[in-house]
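Convert to structure. Protein one:
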Amino acid sequence: MDAPGVPRPVLSEDDVALLALLARGLSLDAVARRLEMSERTVRRRTRTICDRLGVTTPIEAVVWAARRHLI
């Protein structure tokens, strides 16, 4: 259970790692190989990250993270 008044992080460390790989220009297939998961899982996680951040594309998610110095 989260402590009251303590904000939960919007992105997990795994989310940030995924975005960092996308920021380097890796394809979804290459990201999947790096993270040892299926491309389908990478697509689903990317969509979840976008939804959580309120953006529509993975590029916007990368920009969001970069502007906050997460990647």
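Protein two, convert as well:
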Amino acid sequence: MTSHANTRVVDTADVADNADLGSGTSVWHLAQIREHAVLGENCVIGRGAYVGTGVRMGDNCKVQNYALVYEPAALADGVFIGPAAVLTNDTYPRAINADGTQKSADDWDAVGVTLKRGASVGARAVCVAPVTIGAWATIAAGAVVTKDVPDFALVVGVPARRIGWVGKSGHPLSEDAGYWVCPVTGDRYAEVDGELKEVAE
């Protein structure tokens, strides 16, 4: 394991020798970090969480208790993965081939979930690969994401659908005089062709 200053890995965690943990990162009880995973600075990996082989994670990410992040997922800076959430990697899962033989690692191609900066995935949500979750988007608890999610979108349900927009604070935006406004920061956004863009002050 490559670890840097102030990295904390508890004794019951299972971290591969060739995983790379950034400065200030913490790995808690019973978590598993697989081979060649790369975690940025100040990440928190909760109890019983799983981070698959070769997963890439930016700085300041949080993977909560019992979340499953399967390879080849890619998480940008500031991504939140809620308790027991799952990022899948097999579009057509089977334990056996059509001829009845057991599948091996060579019998399928892993596909990943991509999460952009500041995105959040709620508790027990499932992101079915391959999908991209846009920057600052929020996936509600229990949602099942089967298609790409735009930046700043708030999606809920099975399958997940957009019901609104959220700002960088995570709070839902309110419509005001043709703009979408964050009740916490006051930031304004404009909706253009189904996408939300920040409005410069």
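The chain has a mean pLDDT of 95. The radius of gyration is 18 Å.
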